[in-house]
TrEMBL record:
<keyword id="KW-0808">Transferase</keyword>
<dbReference type="Pfam" id="PF10017">
    <property type="entry name" value="Methyltransf_33"/>
</dbReference>
<dbReference type="InterPro" id="IPR017804">
    <property type="entry name" value="MeTrfase_EgtD-like"/>
</dbReference>
<protein>
    <submittedName>
        <fullName>L-histidine N(Alpha)-methyltransferase</fullName>
    </submittedName>
</protein>
<dbReference type="InterPro" id="IPR029063">
    <property type="entry name" value="SAM-dependent_MTases_sf"/>
</dbReference>
<keyword id="KW-0489">Methyltransferase</keyword>
<feature type="domain" description="Histidine-specific methyltransferase SAM-dependent">
    <location>
        <begin position="5"/>
        <end position="311"/>
    </location>
</feature>
<dbReference type="InterPro" id="IPR051128">
    <property type="entry name" value="EgtD_Methyltrsf_superfamily"/>
</dbReference>
<dbReference type="InterPro" id="IPR019257">
    <property type="entry name" value="MeTrfase_dom"/>
</dbReference>
């Protein structure tokens, strides 16, 4: 049993306002459902970032401006689909670099490496499975300049203090002159954001409820999935999308491995995820408080999303 998972579930479901962390969405099943989300027409984030990397890779790499060779370190690489466009550009231009994707899932890393090598046989990949920070720490010892990639608006999952902790930790592990390309979803027409998270097909609902199935399986609980629903809400002032699981009745759930029975009230919420949207002004602030300067913002044509290039 994963002790941290058990402890976090216990803590979150014992709280006055119940919560579970979205980082636990991504078991094998959850990762597959996330792929489905990325293919939904409503989930504009993937298409927007794909457009940026398809059309502006040359400008991005020119602005990075490293004397070769360098490392490209991708944090939370996932399936690497978007990154392909950037890598393809570099390989075609015969640029000397190593690609170092880091992910916690061995399966994701293996699939990614196979797929990339099939299409870019000359790519130098040094994949790492594990925690970002162990790998990042190694980089400082190395003289090779590094471009860090933190794409997909993963930063949106962190509340302000945690986002600052994470970014300053990246900063501490970078050398002067290293760069960070960070993908961030921008504030926009609220209905567009709302629909990306409250889709008609119920895929995002399935993504959230999968967490209850994971608790059933890994912690021997007896959540009845049909007795829970899903709700998501966008606040255009703060930029917060907050997602919740909703209890459809008064009910008790036994979690055997925690030796606990948890009570749920009718309409009680479990907060599962924050997907924060930023304005460009807020993004500048986020960069600067964490020791970075923005070199350039690369936006898609609709201005829905930005890949922002930061320098230490
Ligand atoms: C992978 C964290 C960027 O918050 O938009 C998609 C995950 N959650 N639909 C996001 C997600 C619901 C996604 N991130």
């Amino acid at each position: 049993m994963d002790e941290t998972f058990a402890q976090d579930v216990l803590e979150g479901l014992s709280a006055k306002h119940k919560y579970l962390s979205s980082k636990y969405f991504y078991d094998d099943n959850g990762s597959r459902i996330f792929q489905e989300i990325m293919h939904m027409p409503e989930y504009y984030l993937t298409d927007s970032e794909f457009e940026i990397l398809s059309l502006q890779s040359k400008q991005i790499i020119d602005t990075v401006g490293f004397a070769q060779p360098f490392n490209i370190i991708e944090l939370g690489a996932g399936d690497g689909f978007k990154t392909f466009k950037l890598l393809e550009h570099l390989v075609n231009e015969n640029v000397a670099f190593h690609y170092v994707p880091i992910d916690i899932s061995q399966e994701a890393i293996d699939t990614l490496s196979d797929k990339l090598l099939e299409r870019l046989p000359n790519l130098s990949i040094q994949a790492k499975v594990g925690d970002y920070f162990e790998v990042l720490n190694d980089l400082k010892q190395d003289n090779t300049p590094s471009l860090l990639l933190f794409l997909g608006s993963n930063i949106g999952n962190y509340i302000e203090v945690e986002a600052n902790k994470l970014l300053s930790l990246f900063n501490q592990n970078m050398k002067k002159g290293d760069k960070l390309l960070i993908g961030v979803d921008l504030k926009k027409n609220p209905l567009i954001v709302q629909k990306a998270y409250l889709d008609d097909g119920g895929i995002t609902k399935k993504f959230n409820l999968n967490l209850l199935l994971r608790i059933n399986r890994e912690l021997e609980a007896d959540f009845k999935i049909d007795d829970f629903d899903f709700y998501s809400f966008y606040d255009p002032d703060t930029g917060d999308v907050k997602s919740y699981i909703v209890s459809l009745r008064n009910q008790k759930v036994n979690i055997k491995k925690l030796n606990r029975t948890i009570d749920f009230r009718y309409d009680e919420l479990i907060w599962t995820e924050l997907s924060k949207k930023y304005s460009l002004e807020e993004l500048k602030e986020l960069a600067e408080v964490n020791g970075f300067t923005i070199q350039q913002n690369f936006l898609d044509c609709k201005h829905y999303f930005v890949d922002s290039l930061w320098e230490k």
